[in-house]
Amino acid sequence: MLSRTSRPKLAGRARLRWDNRGRRFMLLHPERGLVLNDTAAEIVKLCDGERSVGEIVDHLKSQYGGAPAAKIEERTLRFLDALAERGLFDRNRAW
């Protein structure tokens, strides 16, 4: 499970791509692709192995100031945990 201090980075086999035809972001990995909304794509873009989850959450709070901070953090952690469960992070870097 990730925490605020985790530094998630996509696994080498996972790729974030823009689908011109569907006009949406897709997170591609060998088994399948995930369609991402704009917020989810923003989170994945920030998963560079350098930023902590806390820094990602703080960035989102500054972007979406109208939303409750606790809700942003809870949803971000839940989303990142779901990606981690699918093996989409480099475990050597994320924890």
Strand arrangement within the widest β-sheet reads 1-2-3
CATH level-1 class: Mainly Alpha
Q: Rg from C-alpha positions?
A: 13 Å
Q: How does CATH name the architecture?
A: Orthogonal Bundle
Q: Which helices and strands occur, and which strands form pairs?
A:
Layout: E1 15-19, E2 24-29, E3 32-36, H1 38-46, H2 53-63, H3 69-85, H4 91-94
Helix pairs in contact: 2-3
Features:
alpha+beta, Arc Repressor Mutant, subunit A, three-stranded antiparallel sheet, 4 helices, 3 strands, 43% helix, globular
Written overview of the protein:
It is built from 4 helices and 3 strands; from the N terminus they run E-E-E-H-H-H-H. By secondary structure, it is an alpha+beta fold. The chain has a single domain, classed as Coenzyme PQQ synthesis protein D (PqqD) (Arc Repressor Mutant, subunit A, Orthogonal Bundle), CATH 1.10.10.1150. It has a 3-stranded antiparallel sheet. The longest helix is centred in the C-terminal third of the chain and has 17 residues, at 69-85. It is globular, with a radius of gyration of 13 Å. 23% of the residues are buried. The model has no long low-confidence stretch (mean pLDDT 89).
Short description:
The chain is of the alpha+beta class and 95 residues long.
